[in-house]
Amino acid sequence: MNIEIKDTLISEEQLQEKVKELALQIERDFEGEEIVVIAVLKGSFVFAADLIRHIKNDVTIDFISASSYGNQTETTGKVKLLKDIDVNITGKNVIVVEDIIDSGLTLHFLRDHFFMHKPKALKFCTLLDKPERRKVDLKAEYVGFQIPDEFIVGYGIDCAEKYRNLPFIASVVTK
To answer: Is 102 one of the catalytic residues?
Structure first.
């Protein structure tokens, strides 16, 4: 599949401002408390790295990998856990960091998975949200940007493992 960058949807400057804003919201909600940040791989790693640098609380970070896409651009509807967390989250304040909420299937699966560990608090932070694509009732407590239903890349988000290194979010067209 050949893709071409169509438009810059969110600039590098807009991303950095929003990351600081989200970090401040998280700090206020968990003032003086330790937070466990769980980044959903691979797409959220750039966002999560920038986010935790702006959070003043004590932060532990871990990673999980789950997918409902496989190697496709449309969800299969079935979520597969590829890598679980290593840290104990029982009784902890947990923020799950995602790059984009689309169908909501992956985070719905992860919510149920994490609740089994009995965290003190479980909240979701997403950089991008496409609410019109939602297949399950799920809302993140912290949302960076609502975006149109377009295929996007950049700032950790890929197309066939490419374009993650772009410092901005761009819409693309396939050829």
So the answer is: yes
Catalytic residue among 50, 99, 102, 129: 102
Residue 33 falls inside a structural domain: yes
Average pLDDT on 70-93 reads 83
Q: What is the DSSP string of 34-54?
A: -EEEEEEETTTHHHHHHHHHH
Here the CATH number for the domain that contains residue 33 is 3.40.50.2020
Averaged confidence pLDDT in the chain: 93
Q: Quickly count: other Cβ atoms within 10 Å of residue 74's Cβ.
A: 10
- Whether pTM > 0.90 for this model: the answer is yes
Question: Dmax of the chain from CA atoms?
Answer: 50
Residues 7-18 pLDDT 10s: 999 999 999 999
140 is in which domain, residue-wise? Answer: 12-149
Domain assignment present for residue 112? The answer is yes
Kindly state whether residue 23 falls inside one of the protein's structural domains.
yes
Domain count of the fold of the chain? 1
Strands 169-174, 152-153: parallel, antiparallel or unpaired by DSSP?
A: antiparallel
The string of pLDDT tens digits covering residues 99-146 is 999 989 999 999 999 999 999 999 999 999 999 888 888 899 999 999
